[in-house]
Amino acid sequence: MNAIQINHLSKSYGEHRGIENISFSVEEGEIFGFIGPNGAGKSTTIRTLLALIRPDSGSAEIFGKDCMKQAAEIAKDVGYLPGETSYYDNMTVRELVTYAADLYGIKNDKKIKELSRRLGLDTSRKISDLSLGNKKKAGILCALLHSPRLIILDEPTSGLDPLIQQEFFTILKEENKRGATIFFSSHVLSEVQKVCDRVAILKEGKIIGVQKISELRANSHKKISVTAEEIPAGYFNLVGVTNYHQESHTASFMFMGNMGEILAKLSVLKVHDLFIEEPALEEIFMHYYR
Q1: Is the distance from CB of 139 to CB of 85 less than 8 angstroms?
Q2: DSSP 257
């Protein structure tokens, strides 16, 4: 059984684009990335999964249960961090978290104290006094306190400083090791690369690819930069070469194909410096968008 199963899901907002005919599945126990720029339809998909909005057509299931018809049952097994958090300003963090725990019918002071410590969150402070980053930490706490089977995160790291981000990723990996499935929506591709097994790429409300992170990299271009004593103009203009730039003694480009061709060309030159590296996930992503 899949943790999430989405079949031909569509949602529009009048003339404004939402999502169109989306289908994909998330296996139980995996960390699944959902990537695309702002406005691609990531939050619409998540809100439909959580029955916060109703789709125009198609279906969605979480752990085999219909997201619309069995939303209350599903909620017990899901931890959700929205992209934009909004809480009761007069509450303290402790009161907010206690309220959330009561909704789930649990008392988990040990986990609350541990997560608060690791995230550097002062639970005695009022919500109204918190920065964007600390409100995000409070949201993370509420999403994880009941040890859910499925954790849905919508742009979870916005507002978090780099050290807390790193600790957050460590916490996610621990939750996954415990058995939780994690659905991680982001437009920051380097984040997805750190934690996810597979990714779905969303463009203008449509899925344009679902791949393992390793496959996304393996099937991509190599990024090459070479500096030599002399490089004839257009020397590396081969089939498979893109983004070609040459200035004086340096040529840089992207290449997809048989690396033997590049090595044969390099062997003729008096090379001073050479870099061959995997492109960043951002560059792969832009390749998809082109």
Answers
A1: yes
A2: S
Can you read off the two tokens belonging to residue 28?
Answer: 């139980």
Strands of the 150-154 sheet, one edge to the other: 78-81, 150-154, 181-186, 31-35, 198-203, 206-212
pTM of the model: 0.80
pLDDT attached to residue 15: 77
- Residue 1's contacts (CB-CB under 8 Å, 6 or more residues apart) are 28, 63, 64
**Residue 253 amino acid letter:** F
Q: Are 88 and 127 in contact (CB under 8 A)?
A: yes
Q: Which pLDDT score, from 0 to 100, does residue 36 have?
A: 83
Burial grade of 137 (CB within 10 A; 0-12, 13-18, 19 or more): buried
pLDDT digits over 58-98, tens only? 999 999 999 999 999 999 999 999 988 888 889 999 999 99
CA-to-CA dists, residue 93 to 44, 112, 251, angstroms:
28, 11, 55
Two structure tokens written together for 265: 């060309």
Give the DSSP per-residue string, 153-207.
EESTTTT--HHHHHHHHHHHHHHHHHT-EEEEEES-HHHHHHH-SEEEEEETTEE
| Positions in the chain short of pLDDT 70 | 217-220, 278-290
CA 132, chain centre distance (Å): 20
Return all residues near 36 (Cβ < 8 A) that are at least 6 apart: 42, 187, 201, 202, 203
Whole-angstrom distance, CA of residue 23 vs CA of residue 112: 36
Q: How far apart are CA 128 and CA 125, in angstroms?
A: 8
Tokens, residue 78: 């899901």
Instruction: Return the axis-axis angle of helices 109-119 and 162-178, rounded to nearest 10°.
Output: 150
Sequence-distant (6+) residues with CB within 8 A of 244 are 234, 236, 237, 251, 252, 253
Residues in the chain: 290
- Amino acid in position 164: I
